Amino acid sequence: MNAVKLQSQLPRAEKRRRCQRWAKSVIAWILACVYLFPVYWMVITSFKNKEETFSSPPHLIPYAPTLESYRAAFSPEYGVWLALANSFLIALGTLILTLAVALPAAYAVARFRDGVSTAMMVALTVVQLLPAIAISIPLFVMFRQMGMINTHLSIILADLSVTLPFAVILLRPYFKQFPYEVEEAAKLDGLGVLSTILKIVIPTIRPGVVMIGSFAFLMAWGEFTFALTLSTQQEIQPLTVALNRLIGQYGTNWNHLMAVAALIALPVLLIFIALQRYIVAGLSGGATKG
After folding, report:
1. Separation between Cα atoms, residue 279 and residue 83, nearest integer Å
2. Read out DSSP for the chain?
3. Is the Cβ–Cβ distance between 107 and 175 less than 8 Å?
4. Given this model, what pLDDT does residue 31 score?
5. pLDDT tens-digit map of 16-71
6. Cα 123 to Cα 90, 117, 129, distances in angstroms
7. Which residues of the chain have a pLDDT value below 70?
8. R_g of the chain, CA atoms, integer Å
């Protein structure tokens, strides 16, 4: 009797689990649609003309899609091509410097004694929590005294103050989890500390390195406060500041503004799609390592 009763309960439990999975999927899709709707609205607005942008009720799908906003965005008036090159140069420079400094720094913090390591992690966390606007003015004063205002290097170093603590904090668990016995074996084979990190440790923690590099690039790509504070010349300003130039004092061409915003968002989307496997593996790996 108990066996028959148990067999009758199994399909019911399976049906309940299936319903729960469907409910979770529906809720996830609803939340994703709500979250992504502003992105969708930005893209479709970039394909509307000025009249359709302000139509009432608003059109969820453009009636007459046009590339006029993208042609206007790439005109010499807004200087988007130059701003695009500046953004790429700043983001790439920030990526390279972040990895060059964060990898040995995270390794050193992971190998320090617990007291020293804890103090350094607290200091890095405090630095990371500071808002960009709080340190932009001191950075402006310092770089002006050094004659570095209106240079790409000043913006890269300013962005490094945000990306570097973030990178060290997330990379430290990877180095801390890496077996020290492997490093000792490498030393017996004649490898130095730097060679061990480059040839043995980094290939092993590749997902974390790719994840940190991606986030460093994207943080610098979308940064606005430092770029606006440290660059007053259009020849140096990145895309985020160029986007701000489209907001006029007496009016704004929203379709043109959305076209430039879509251009800023495009590399973010492409990088995430291309490196999704590494980013997810890096985040999950960093969260599970002590």
Report:
1. 27
2. -HHHHHHHHHHHHHHHHHHHHHHHHHHHHHHHHHHHHHHHHHHHHHTS-HHHHT-SSPPSS-SS--SHHHHHHTSTTTTHHHHHHHHHHHHHHHHHHHHHHHHHHHHHHHHS-HHHHHHHHHHHHHHHHS-HHHHHHHHHHHHHHTT-TTSHHHHHHHHHHHHHHHHHHHHHHHHHHS-HHHHHHHHHTT--HHHHIIIIIHHHTHHHHHHHHHHHHHHHHT--HHHHHH--STTT--HHHHHHHTB-SS-B-HHHHHHHHHHHHHHHHHHHHHTHHHHHHHHHHHHH--
3. yes
4. 92
5. 788 888 888 889 899 988 988 888 888 888 888 888 888 878 888 888 888 888 88
6. 26, 10, 10
7. 1-11, 113-116, 248-251, 278-290
8. 25
User: Where do the domains of the chain lie?
Assistant: 2-68, 71-288
**Architecture of 71-288 per CATH?**
Orthogonal Bundle (1.10)
Give this prediction's pTM.
Answer: 0.80
Show the tokens assigned to 51. 């009249």
Backbone angles phi, psi at 75, to 5 degrees: -75, 160
What is the distance between the alpha carbons of residues 110 and 148, in angstroms, rounded to a whole number?
Answer: 34
Tokens 């460093």 sit on residue: 216
Give strand pairing partners of 247.
252
Which residues does residue 252 pair with via DSSP β-bridges, in sequence order? 247
Q: d(Cα 162, Cα 128) in Å, to the nearest integer?
A: 6
Which amino acid is located at 269 in the chain?
L
Q: Which residue has the tokens 């704004």?
A: 252
